[in-house]
Amino acid sequence: MNRRKDLKTKRVIVEFLLTGNIGRSRLQGLFDFLRGRRKWDIRLPQTESELNRELASSPDGVIVSHSFSKKTMKSLERLSAPVVFVDIPKSERFQRRHPDITIHNDNGSVGMMAARYLLSIGKFNGFGYFPYWTPRFYSTQREKAFRSIVEQSGCSVSVFQHNGTLDLKTWLKELHKPAAVFAAWDEGAREVLAACHQAKIKIPNQVCLLGVDNDEL
Prior knowledge:
217 residues, 4-stranded parallel β-sheet
């Protein structure tokens, strides 16, 4: 009886944004896990409205990787099926009365590894950190750990302020060269790369740039 129950196909909503490398990598990891082990009918909503339509159809489980509007988060709260929250801190969620799991990166280790790597590859006169466009817990945690290691080496870190008085090109120009810049995620690293090109700052001679997420492009 239990064996037959295990073979029943489960309808599972998987909310991974597939326009970026990280969402596709997560989906590939999920496929690797499922191979020969589970029978899932996977639904892949790419917008909040698509997600809400899927949630209304009584799924057997949900994996969600983004914070949404209060209405959608409330729907997840009421859902009796198990929910896995990927990189969504409890502070951005409502209190669920049903089973849920939280999975997130060790962002402190990410920041420390970035600092130690940059410190190991050369002598830099300046360090910069490019955070996410709006406050995000992972970006803040990476910044804190990155600054801690760099400051222990006797250097300081300039953090770009998205709502500050300096635009990105000016901020990059004012870093003491050669400089090392750590971006919280790869899309941010591409933005820094474009700004360096526009400002005629040579990479990696003048600015050594490091991002996160392994976006090969």
